[in-house]
Amino acid sequence: MQHSTPHRRARTLTKLTSALTLALTLVAGGIATAAPAQAASPYERGPNPTDSLLEASRGPFATSQQSVSSLSVSGFGGGVIYYPTDTSQGTFGAIAISPGYTATWSSLAWLGPRIASHGFVVIGIETNTIYDQPASRGRQLLAALDYLTQRSSTTIRSRIDSSRLAVAGHSMGGGGTLEAANDRPSLQAAVPIAPWNLTKTWSGIRVPTMIIGGQTDSIAPVATHSQPFYTSIPASSEKAYLELAGASHFFPQTTNTTMAKSMVAWLKRWVDDDTRYDPFLCPAPRSIAISEYRDTCPNG
Q: To the nearest 10°, the Cα dihedral for 234, 187, 45, 124?
């Protein structure tokens, strides 16, 4: 091995000192040097986003689906998996979605292929019983994610990045989404939709959370559910509150473009770490369909 002599070390030090002096002189003289460009997220999937792309009924990825029997899983009641057929862009993030009290996945089924077509693996779950409460639904969402990443078919499992997972749900499923985010801080995103939960304080949530409420919801009124939930999440956690103008508790059960657009943008931003979606989240989107919007503004 060749060792440096004192003279070689001295010459090296002199060169470093000269380079530093030149750099300081250039700055002092007002000569600006270009800052290095911010590297794109390695998880970016799909083309640059536009309003028309996010408002379309399908995103840029073709999708397929696979049914999951309740007899083949534990911890939740089965469901349907939607996934991109593309295998050329690497793995995708995954999201589990729960329906609300007394409802089945069919009430939200339009969301499955829509979200998957933007580059996600989606499992829409059936709950163990239609009467399950939020805490149970939260555990079932996490069980569904564990199934996706550990025990689903090779076709599904090979498409998933197990470090990039999210949860969502409607009504008590939305309450369950808060429970899951609170219980598993490693999740990358959560989207409670018209959430209902007797627990009003969620100061333990660190997962980036977008709460979507309905202005005229009489079952989970935003004043006693969505808004207190949002307020209780620490400001240090990324969060957003989207309130749909004139929307009842059941707005997610039919196609809702404003909800889907914001939901996809939130998932792309936090599950894919894709900053191309920042402009769709902050500043507040302008639409007559939105009665209120609050946001910490992405700063990750």
A: -110
